[in-house]
Amino acid sequence: MAEPQRIEKREITDELRESYLDYAMSVIVGRALPDVRDGLKPVHRRILWAMWDTGLTWSSKLRKSANVVGEVLGRYHPHGDVAVYDALVRMAQPFSLRYPLIHGQGNFGSVDGDSAAAMRYTEAKLSKIAEELLQDINKETVNWIPNYDGTRVEPSVLPAKLPNLLVNGSVCIAVGMATNIPPHNLGEVIEATKHLIDHPKATSEDLLQYVQGPDFPTGGVMYDKKAITEAYLTGRGAITTRALAEIVERKGGSGRDQFDIVITEIPYQVNKAELIIKIAELVQEKRIEGIRDVRDESDREGLRIVIELKTDAAPQKILNQLWQHTDLQKDFHLNMVALVDGLKPQVLSLKDVIFYYIEHRKEVVRRRAEFDLKVAKDREHILEGLAKALSVIDKIIATIKKSADKDEAHTNLMKSFKLSDLQATAILEMRLQALAALERQKIEDELKEKRKLIKDLEALLSSPQRILSTIKDELTGLTSFADERKTKLHSGGLKEFQEEDLVPQEEVVITLSQNGYIKRVPPKTFKSQKRGGKGLIGSDVGEEDFLAYFVSADTHDDILFFTDHGRVFKSKVYNIPVGSRTSKGKAVHNFLNIPVQENISAIITYAAKSINPSSYLVMVTSLGMIKKTKLQDFANIRANGLIALGLRKGDLLKWVKLSDGKQEIMIGTKFGQSIRFKESQARPMGRTAAGVRGITLHKDDTVISFDLVDTSYKSNLLLAVMDNGYAKTTPLTQYKVQNRGGKGIKTAEVTKKTGSLVALTVLTDEEELLSISTKGQILRTSLGSIRKTGRAAQGVRIMRLNPGDKIAGVICL
């Protein structure tokens, strides 16, 4: 009769919790995490053991990888053949392991992410250094466990003369935990281990005097010694690595400097092919500009990626952008989790890893010595019996001859000569050649040697210090495999990229229309033309808009936007959208919180380093008021702006200039009047002040221009431009210095033909003039072609305008 079913009632949450934990620990211990002692996961250990057990060592011939995979699957690892082959392939890849444990022949993949050829095509055997993991395994140095079906046994851990966990690292994801241990330089790890043997109280920080940090097989440069130290002290942390990149000059026929960025090493675990594709995508999307071509020139000699730059590109800025947007700069997130005692997953510091390795080697050396001692004593026992027999060989022979058979002879020898079972057997199996004098001497010499070895092994086992010395000597023997460090260490940290680190520093022209459309373009966009030309179309501003402001700046400059209501807003020049020569631009309100009822009346650009106590902003209003305020008062401007000037009713802020406080002021009016006075006559005031009078205006006249006179230039000219396209230059010496607040003197003959005065600009070493009309025509011409005349002259035509068009502004370059 069948036994009744036994059913136990349990809370499902308890059952699920326990079952999941059992499953998780099974995966963690049985498949995922490396053992701190030999640095191997079970699948790697089984592959190496199977190859060793079948004689596939360094000195043997290569064998098909499929043969190895089949051996591992059939005897030790009853999982997928793909998982086993992938593990075998990784141990053969010089770009994955710092010191490959398998010597492969055939296609074992590449740093481009190419997969290995099928296992039937590739061949493998143990590398020479891998044998150091398995040496002495047959001397009972490690514990053995049954395989999956109980038909044979496998090692639970390898003897591991090689400190493999640190040397080759390990990467895995378990259930609820992961490990990410980088590879290290063998020579450094050996020295650190020897130091900890000699100084057991040494800290991880002490050991970092020897282990500089990871040593990746793909090289590269790692940064920030402080962050590296913290990671090794705690077992967790991010280590920043960069590709080894060099900016090299390229020979070109243009006569200008041309550069390439050449990359010869990349960060660990970066796919080279995907990296190149990413760079190409960034160029295509215009997120990085200035790259002409990207070429992969890698060959069997080494890795080489060439990034060819355009002639006008800024190499360091482009390299900064590549650091920021690609895996040329990558963080390795160190997470040193490993199994301790083969069962317990722990986060380990550098000292912990080396400590557990030393403890393992102490156990291996002790068990090996015990095994060798047992073998030596067994051999000594046999040799003592043989030596005793040879001393009475005639009696031995007589005893054997009198015996009826082999068993009786064996018994008689034990009784007559007080021999052990093993000794009697050895004597019966002894050949007659051993009776020769030389053979007898060999037995005696071997006996002495064995007794000496026994004494030495017993001394070793009784001395923990000698065991440690043996470990050190064996580690020293591994230095033949050590090589130079591949990953270089940069002790300094990497500052976080600011946006300006990614933007090329170059001269640009900023245009702003009356309706608030802004853009920046390179000055070379406008080619030089002869005086009197019609100019190029400079901006598609529309019929009811015109370009009002036209300034030169550097992309890294700060830019201040002043409104006619006396408020100021701040941005970076590189934040201004890039446009083409004919594009309309973007609305300035898209990135500045300017009230709708306010219009931008002045733009100031300056380098942030220019802010000092002697820098001033000089402001002039349409009704002739002037105010001087320290630039440093505008260092911190809120997103919704600051008050820059207190205005009187009906007045508007129109011009702002940057000054050192030692200049002279030149103000011009629509009707052709101008005044020149010393800047010192306008004392510095606070941000909210209204200022003082700069010029007294005639009825219906307004200020149209304001400029500063640099008195260090003795041959200054004053450029006057009229809105119908006429201009002239006049020596500044014809303008006397007056007192602030006067009506000034005549500076141009304003007629219906010339139109009103639209610009009055002091010239120093400028060479070219950019004139822009209200309908968007732009003319670039040489200032030298504009005739010098007296103060009251009309000037010459510099630009032919279409009907209804007028000059809106000028800029000198």
From TrEMBL:
Enzyme class per UniProt: isomerase
CDD domains listed in its UniProt record: TOP4c
Listed PROSITE patterns: TOPO_IIA
Catalytic residue list: 121 (o-(5'-phospho-dna)-tyrosine intermediate)
Superkingdom: Bacteria
Domain Topo IIA-type catalytic, chain residue ranges per copy: 33-502
Motif range (GyrA-box): 529-535
Reactions accelerated catalytically: ATP-dependent breakage, passage and rejoining of double-stranded DNA
Other facts noted in the record for this chain: Few gyrases are as efficient as E.coli at forming negative supercoils. Not all organisms have 2 type II topoisomerases; in organisms with a single type II topoisomerase this enzyme also has to decatenate newly replicated chromosomes.
GO MF terms held by the record: ATP binding; DNA binding; DNA negative supercoiling activity
EC number(s) reported in the record: 5.6.2.2
Function: A type II topoisomerase that negatively supercoils closed circular double-stranded (ds) DNA in an ATP-dependent manner to modulate DNA topology and maintain chromosomes in an underwound state. Negative supercoiling favors strand separation, and DNA replication, transcription, recombination and repair, all of which involve strand separation. Also able to catalyze the interconversion of other topological isomers of dsDNA rings, including catenanes and knotted rings. Type II topoisomerases break and join 2 DNA strands simultaneously in an ATP-dependent manner.
GO biological process: DNA topological change; DNA-templated DNA replication
Protein name: DNA gyrase subunit A
Alphabetically ordered keywords of this record: ATP-binding, Cytoplasm, DNA-binding, Isomerase, Nucleotide-binding, Topoisomerase
Cellular localization per UniProt: Cytoplasm
Family designation: Belongs to the type II topoisomerase GyrA/ParC subunit family.
SUPFAM superfamilies: GyrA/ParC C-terminal domain-like, Type II DNA topoisomerase
Lineage, broadest ranks: Bacteria, Candidatus Colwelliibacteriota
Subunit structure: Heterotetramer, composed of two GyrA and two GyrB chains. In the heterotetramer, GyrA contains the active site tyrosine that forms a transient covalent intermediate with DNA, while GyrB binds cofactors and catalyzes ATP hydrolysis. Heterotetramer composed of ParC and ParE.
Cellular component, GO annotation: chromosome; cytoplasm; DNA topoisomerase type II (double strand cut, ATP-hydrolyzing) complex
Organism expressing this protein natively: Candidatus Colwellbacteria bacterium RIFCSPLOWO2_12_FULL_44_13
Matching InterPro entries: GyrA, GyrA/parC_rep, Gyrase/topoIV_suA_C, Topo_IIA-like_dom_sf, Topo_IIA_A/C_ab, Topo_IIA_A_a_sf, Topo_IIA_dom_A, Type_II_DNA_Topoisomerases
